[in-house]
């Protein structure tokens, strides 16, 4: 796409954060024109003859808008709600410790945990169709009354009912297989350069993830169909195992074992795209599972043996409990690996680097809540007017009851602890905030006392971010405990009975709590759906809701193939390509990134050729690089990677941060007292603290005092404009293109 001619010496390329801002907001201009890219991700400039900018002369403003890459349509936003557990487990694999000795183990365990989510997905749908509908409802005249869409199966042989209803989970598997088959990259033009950065962050968006995603997809599809097969075969074997049942069960077990072995060999499954041998193996496993499903359904349809008339589908509760036992074992194994391989330097990672465990356990908990709510709502619909207590006792499997009880328990305990942390830490946070306010506004009149308290409270609230990581770990541990307690369902125990016997709380109160927890999960799901819809219709609303999607889909799909596609696979190569083009056209480039945009630019700088990096400067503001990413993703963002970014741009790097910002922060040093002039380390000159707000006294030209900006961008701020002027001056203003092969 063509645009305004390039005639200035320096191009300031701005990259927004997770707010999904439009080009006019990023450029702080009224009229813009797109010069490259498309509607999902594109580059924009000010139209000619509209020079309403405060930047230095000779600087052309350009914006890269990537907000629609992780979001897109409302339909995709709704998909993200239901794919949230897959996304969380996928993020966990990137949160492994920096110790390279833990990489293979963490990858294997996270991929197995991701596989259990696919199994749970199939079992939940099978629980509705095969257990509640095919096994229970079709045998109940009360359930069938007035339901002509079900009564046509009533009175049919059990094998026919199960065989027909097995089509529903098979179709669901095929649907999610089809949805996940969309490639992460859209155009060949966004392929990354050939050279590989020396840091892991520089590989994000550079290596071709499609072969790995294709292998994982084949494995998960194979396991999904094998899970459906095993559910049918266990029900069929309840009255006695025939030779055909044994043969089909053994074959299913072989397919499942082969899939697990493939996931537990990272050097094999992570091989380059040029090695197609594993692709053929995983495709063969997928094909074998599909063919096996056809055989199992046909066998169930024609098998003449009588069926065991139990309360629930034979073998279903045992399979479900076995899955939760496997998840508990894997979570314990992941925690052991993280503790053993943690960075033992003091303060290196929060709470022994258990971030991956917290995120993985949260994903497992959310998936369990989704599955339990699906089965509970279906049971509630089929049970008609059955009282809540009776419905819980006779409806879904007991394991789902324990899941809802555990989810409610984890949420309540975490909220109680969070409230205590807020109260206990408030005095210390306010004391530190008061010292900052006293330093920033030493000569303030007495009438601005209320405004100073507002500033103090804003700083105190921003400092609570560091407390969220321990709370997330606490919730993750409680969520892991939930999967462990679900095995009590095998013993025929209900949470109400256990709690009444051991704690003394009345069983009716616990039953009410479980019913309340079920509706709470439904309310949370509905809230996420509404939030997703409004997030992409209302920009201010998305500044809060869209953060989760934008951060989660930054990382490539390396654990779960059904997770949302990674937008960094397009955004980073596209930025690299555009910056290289501008430099080779004879221009220096000033990169300015706000919030998550600074993370995109950091990964981009690590991919730039040296001759391009010598004509690039970097300005970050509201950056979470050190405060969040270095703590949560220590294997990808560490001190060495951050210093390499500085060296690649010749330390033409300024990072602006505010004490009122709950997300962004300093990168190398807080610099609360000004750094010594004799400091030889260029990293100490990167960070510059912005006083926020600019003042507490209402100016004569306004009726209200300057606003508290917090994490919001403010390109018109004097310190931002001054940093732009400084970096433009340090770029030198040369217009000749670099010579390839050596830095200029």
TrEMBL record:
Matches recorded under InterPro entries: AB_hydrolase_fold
Swiss-Prot/TrEMBL keywords: Membrane, Transmembrane, Transmembrane helix
Protein's UniProt name: Integral membrane protein
Tagged with keyword Hydrolase: no
Organism annotation: Micromonospora luteifusca
Keyword Membrane: yes
Membrane spanning stretches: 77-97, 109-130, 158-177, 219-238, 244-269, 281-301, 321-339, 351-372, 399-424, 468-492, 512-536
Region of interest called Disordered, as start-end residue ranges on this chain: 688-717
Superkingdom per UniProt: Bacteria
